[in-house]
Write a structure and sequence with these properties.
Blueprint lengths: L4 H6 L1 H4 L3 H16 L5 E2 L2 H8 L3 H12 L3 E2 L6 E3 L1 H37 L51 H10 L5 H10 L4 H13 L6 H9 L16 H54 L2 H11 L4 H11 L3 H23 L5
Antiparallel strand pairs: 1-3, 2-3
Helix pairs in contact: 3-5, 4-5, 7-8, 7-9, 8-10, 11-14, 12-13, 12-14
């Protein structure tokens, strides 16, 4: 928010305020500027909180500071500051010009790109772009969990790993342990057999270990096999995951959070674009119906129409009209008034008259 120091120090209203009231005034100006439509609520309870004065707002701050704000020209139940509103309106005009300039620049770039393509493009023909795929899949095709900790999540039984789709055998499970660098694989198998476990249970335990790599070392797999019992959940009794695994999980969670944030931003941008298009379509419709009426009015006619459109607070709009002329927002206000007046006339003509 621009702050005009000389204007502030020379303002008669500011000179009449205490330091507490000046601070409240500045806070309300900041809230007005930070809003999306240069407004603050026309409610003393809300203003007491926003100003930071609390109960003091109602005791000694309300009337003097309130006089620095006027009813918002577009939003009922809201206040605005005339200078803040004028600056906000200039900012909106600048944004609209920048948007149109960006669209024009993008159209020129597309046209120039089309011309260069039609001339044969770059040497060597079109380049083949290889898709870049992040390593988002964990072993065995499991996607990373969105929860804070997925190391104790049960892993579905993968079924028999042996040839001919038969039931897992002890020899195969021992080979699987050796391939995972479990140095005492035979002892682990003997322990599982003596504890009454079946090969398929050991197979599921190894599958859970693979699905959460690099959470645990081969030694952790060996220790877990020694504690395995029939009917036991293979996702339990594991040690705390290694630091590398926790870091990997945090990275995956950040990637998921970033993707969700970008999706929400994209949805918001689409909604803003849709709202803008709807507003543009509305203005275009109003222009087609009543634009000629406004264009035919002279200065006095516009002043009279402004008074009709805003009978409760015409002076605010008349001051704006005197300083900046017929701005786009003021024109839309008059178009909306003419539309309401036209609908009222049509409605009165279509209603049956009593005899």
């Amino acid at each position: 928010m621009p702050f005009y120091v000389n204007d502030w120090l020379s303002s008669g209203r500011v000179l009449c305020m205490t330091l507490e009231q000046q601070g409240a005034y500045v806070r309300l100006l900041c809230h007005c500027w930070a809003s999306q439509d240069a407004s603050i609520p026309d409610d003393d309870q809300a203003l007491a909180v926003l100003s930071g004065m609390g109960e003091g707002w109602l005791k000694n701050g309300c009337p003097l500071v309130r006089r620095c704000f006027t009813p918002h020209p577009q939003l009922k139940g809201c206040l605005t500051n005339e200078r803040i509103y004028a600056l906000w309106e200039e900012r909106q005009i600048w944004r609209e010009k920048s948007r149109k300039g960006g669209q024009k620049s993008a159209a020129n770039r597309r046209r120039n790109k089309g011309l260069s393509t039609s001339k044969g493009g770059s040497k060597g023909g079109p380049a083949t772009v290889k898709p870049v795929v992040g390593n988002y899949l964990q072993p065995n095709g499991n996607t990373p969990s969105s929860s804070s900790s997925s190391f104790n999540t049960p892993t579905p039984t993968l079924g028999a790993p042996s040839k001919n789709d038969s039931t897992p055998q002890w020899g195969e499970e021992e080979e699987d342990l050796i391939s995972r660098k479990v140095a005492r694989a035979p002892d682990a198998i003997k322990a599982a057999i003596s504890n009454g476990c079946q090969p398929v249970q050991v197979h599921d335990l190894i599958a859970h270990y693979d699905a959460h790599q690099p959470a645990w070392s081969a030694g952790a797999l060996y220790s877990r096999l020694l504690a395995l019992r029939p009917g036991q959940d293979v996702a339990t009794l594991w040690p705390e995951p290694a630091k590398e695994a926790r870091d990997q999980q945090r990275r995956e969670q950040r990637q998921a959070d970033d993707a969700e944030y970008l999706r929400k931003r994209e949805d918001q941008a689409k909604q803003v674009q849709a709202d803008r298009q709807a507003a543009d379509a509305r203005v275009a419709t109003l222009e087609s119906r009543h634009g000629d009426v406004i264009d035919m009015l002279d200065r006095q006619g516009l002043i009279d129409l402004i008074r009709q459109a805003e009978p409760a607070n015409p002076e605010f709009h008349l001051r704006r009209f005197g300083k900046t002329g017929l701005t786009q927002s003021l024109r839309v206000l008059l178009l909306e008034y003419l539309e309401v007046r036209s609908e009222s006339i049509v409605k009165s003509q279509t209603q049956p008259h009593s005899p």
